[in-house]
Design a protein that fits this description.
CATH class of the largest domain: Alpha Beta
Oligomer: single chain
Structural class: alpha+beta
Helix content: 25-40%
Bound molecules: adenosine-5'-diphosphate, uridine-5'-diphosphate
Distance between the termini: 28 Å
Radius of gyration: 17 Å
Shape: globular
Number of domains: 2
Number of strands: 14
Length: 235
């Protein structure tokens, strides 16, 4: 896969075209943002750790027959992926009350949910990624009926797999965000699965091992990412 020109720079990654029109390269940066881009910073070596974590998880998901965009890890910071037409949707998968869910309903962080909750947001930075429901997805044409069925099914299957995977590493998977896109008629899981978009708590101590350390100025951000990186890579 030969890198061609830069076609997009996002908050955490840069996208390059390649010599293959069906493939892209995702370059993982150390940049970190939070609270709608108002908080900005750098997490040293985050790009290297997130590329490695995401690559490993996508490979495991492929082995578990969850269709995704991963093609190959190309270098420390670069991942080759299928070029998708992204759906403008973020799927939030929640096992335990945290973050905006706790705030919205006045609930205590850490309360286990009796079953997994799926939430949807319309992915548009200028609108601050507003929350939406299944009707919005269908009525506004952000996905088809069949795609919605697949999104829900894949999201729950990814959750089942990841809860067990992280549990085996001594980590509780509290919640996470997924993105999907279309490739030649198929719906594929895309983007990244990393401590940037997951809440991961140490099973024994409850210590936060994810981007909340950056969001909430808890310190030890790099150290937390490194714990997840080493556990995932050594699994
Ligand atoms: P953001 O765009 O939200 O700032 P990033 O910096 O992570 O986020 O940029 C990566 C962008 O690439 C995201 O907008 C994501 O939707 C998109 N993306 C992820 N995987 C693919 C893919 N396989 N094909 C096309 N676009 C993708
Ligand atoms: N999340 C994400 N990107 C977003 C919104 C949420 O990666 O644009 C992730 C976030 O890291 C957390 C989960 O989705 O693991 C649920 O997020 P929540 O709505 O609680 O986010 P908060 O507003 O607290 O960051």
């Amino acid at each position: 896969m030969q890198k061609k020109e830069k076609i997009y720079e996002g908050k955490a990654k840069i996208i390059y075209s390649t010599d293959d029109p069906d493939h892209l390269i995702l370059y993982y940066k150390d940049d970190a943002t939070a609270f709608d881009n108002t908080k900005k910073g750098t997490i040293v070596d985050k790009g290297i750790m997130n590329n490695a974590i995401s690559s490993k998880i996508f490979q495991l998901l492929s082995q578990n027959r969850i269709p995704n965009h991963f093609v190959e890890k190309l270098s420390d910071r670069e991942m080759g992926v299928k070029k998708l037409q992204m759906l403008p949707v973020e799927v939030l998968v929640r096992n335990v009350v945290a973050g905006s869910l706790a705030k919205r309903y006045g609930m205590e962080e850490g309360t286990p949910l009796k079953r997994t909750i799926l939430e949807f947001c319309y992915k548009d930075d200028s609108l601050h990624d507003p929350q939406c429901n299944e009707d919005h997805l269908l009525v506004f044409g952000w996905c088809t009926d069949q795609e919605l069925i697949n999104i829900k099914n894949y999201s729950l299957r990814v959750n089942d797999f990841l809860v067990g995977f992280f549990d085996s590493l001594g980590i509780r998977l509290i919640d996470f965000k997924l993105e999907f896109g279309r490739f030649k008629g198929d719906l594929l899981l895309a983007d990244e699965i990393t401590p940037d978009g997951c809440r991961l708590w140490d099973k024994k101590t409850g210590e936060k091992l994810d981007k909340d350390r950056f969001r909430r100025d808890l310190g030890g951000v790099e150290e937390a990412y490194k714990i997840v990186y080493e556990k995932v890579l050594n699994s």
